[in-house]
Amino acid sequence: MMATYIGFSLVFLHSLHKLGNTISEEEEKGHFHLWKYVGYLLGIPEELLPNDKKQATEFFYLWTSVQPSSDKDSVLLAHSLLNESLENPILKFKFQRRNLRYLHICCTWFLLDHEVCKRLQIPDVPFKNGFPKMKRIINKIYDSTVSRDARIKKGNKDQMKVLEDYLRVTQNSNFR
User: Fold this and answer.
1) pLDDT single digits (tens) 55-103
2) Are 58 and 36 contained in the same domain?
3) Rounded to whole angstroms, how far apart are CA atoms 114 and 167?
4) Same domain assignment for residues 86 and 138
5) Are 35 and 45 in the same domain?
6) What is the pLDDT of residue 174?
7) Strand (E) positions, the chain?
8) E strand segments, 23-171
9) How far is residue 72's CA from residue 142's CA, in Å, rounded to a whole number?
10) What is the pTM of this model?
């Protein structure tokens, strides 16, 4: 549970930064506060829930130092996450779902250590750095040319559209 918590706090923020996004100190503090509360609700002992990036990094180092290398279950989990988009009914066409899987694979190689990707048997795809590097450039340009308020409003609008699509597709189905 601690590893999942750190994945949604420290690793998430690191990945956003690596993709060229800017996170304010206030946003970072708010993110850790939110995930500390989520961790508490999940039953993680409070003393294992970091307050900030420094503590999260220390806990992450501790956790990774005692974890065994990837095993068969790790590989299965990684592939289940990568293949989720192939079954996602929100995207109408098969080529869209395959393309989304490809983009997920590209981002995985960009965001994770290559040794980790090899141990998890993440497929090595052509031009795997193209999309993430282009996304990083676009994010940096967007960050410098569009106001923070406008970016937040657009992000909220995009997220509401995703939620609307999800609810529309899943309302009368067993997909959840």
Assistant:
1) 998 888 887 777 777 788 889 988 998 998 888 788 889 999 999 999 9
2) yes
3) 36
4) yes
5) yes
6) 64
7) none
8) none
9) 41
10) 0.80
- Rg over alpha carbons for the chain, rounded to the nearest Å, is 18
Residue 120: per-residue pLDDT:
92
- Give residue 173's pLDDT: 66
The residue ranges of DSSP E strands in 17-176, in sequence order, are none
Q: Tell me the per-residue pLDDT of 108-151, one tens digit each, with 9 for 90 and over.
A: 999 988 998 999 999 999 999 999 999 999 999 999 999 999 99
In angstroms, rounded to a whole number, what is the distance separating the alpha carbons of residues 139 and 36? 28
Tokens of 128: 């795997």
| Spatial separation of the C-alpha atoms in residues 134 and 108, rounded to whole Å | 15
What value does the mean pLDDT take over residues 30-45? 91
Closest by Cα among 33, 42, 30 to 3 = 42
Supply φ then ψ for residue 116, to 5 degrees: -65, -45
Give me the domain span that covers residue 158.
Answer: 147-176
For residues 136 and 76, membership in a common domain is answered with yes
Report in angstroms the alpha-carbon separations of 159 from 15, 18, 26, 62. Answer: 19, 21, 21, 34
Structural domains of the chain, count? 3
- Token duo for residue 30: 């708010």
Strand, helix or coil at 171?
coil
